[in-house]
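User: Can you predict the 3D structure for this chain?
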Amino acid sequence: MARGSWFRKVAKNGATPGNIPDGLWSKCPKCSEISFAKDVEKNFNVCPKCEYHHKLRANERITMMVDEGSFREFDADITALDPLGFPDYADKIVKAREKTGLTDSLVTGYATIEERPFIVGAADFAFMGGSMGSVLGEKVTRAMERGIEERLPVIMFTANGGGARMQEGILSLMQMAKTSAAAAKMDRAGIPYIVVLTDPTMAGVYASFAALGDVILAEPGALIGFAGRRVGNQDVGGKLPEDFQTSEFQFRCGMVDRIVSRKDLRGELARLLKFYGLDNSGMTEQRVELN
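Assistant: Here is the predicted structure, written as structure tokens:
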């Protein structure tokens, strides 16, 4: 053996720094634990040590939650314009599409869980931070209107850190009122609306349709709120709790109904759909008791 190899670091699986394939390891951003990426993936992309919930792409979340092969996307062709001629906005949209393979920051469609039909929306943080522009608002509204027309519940997974998209100005801010009005129509029609808050859900998204569900669930440790900690400290003139604007804080304040670990989330959603008395023909009068 060459003397140079005496000082070469060798991993437990025999790999050396020079021949470790990309994507083999996953480092937890919370506890810095380094795990095999496949082990983290098998654990629903949750850190095996500290239970940190890694961010998911929209397609990953949908695949993880719904019945295999049941998802049918709609409104996939809605794309953002550049109404203000904002500098570089058109280029940023193109780059985001190339990077993510999506047309915008929300994916919507039909799906089932345990053969119970519903309409699903899943935000993708990788597309411009999941920011809310006119496309996201339109797709949320159309999903809710389909739910009313076809008497199907709507489950919305949020993942939005950018708030309203400033490049679209007032058109972006209008989506808060637009989606809130659609949620109110669902309420009047008696159609269930379930929200799952994931990391992060902030600003205009949280100040509108994300906080209006009949049932609001959240993943553990998710960042949830309107403005950041610095602004909050300035407003209250004191030090905020360490877990300010987390799932746990919002749960204590009554803004979240239940915190559900990702590995249990599909079962919890199936339970809620059953509670609301759904079958393959839409709403029924059947109800089951939640313990």
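The first strand starts at residue 25 and ends at 27. The CA atoms of residues 132 and 249 lie 24 Å apart.
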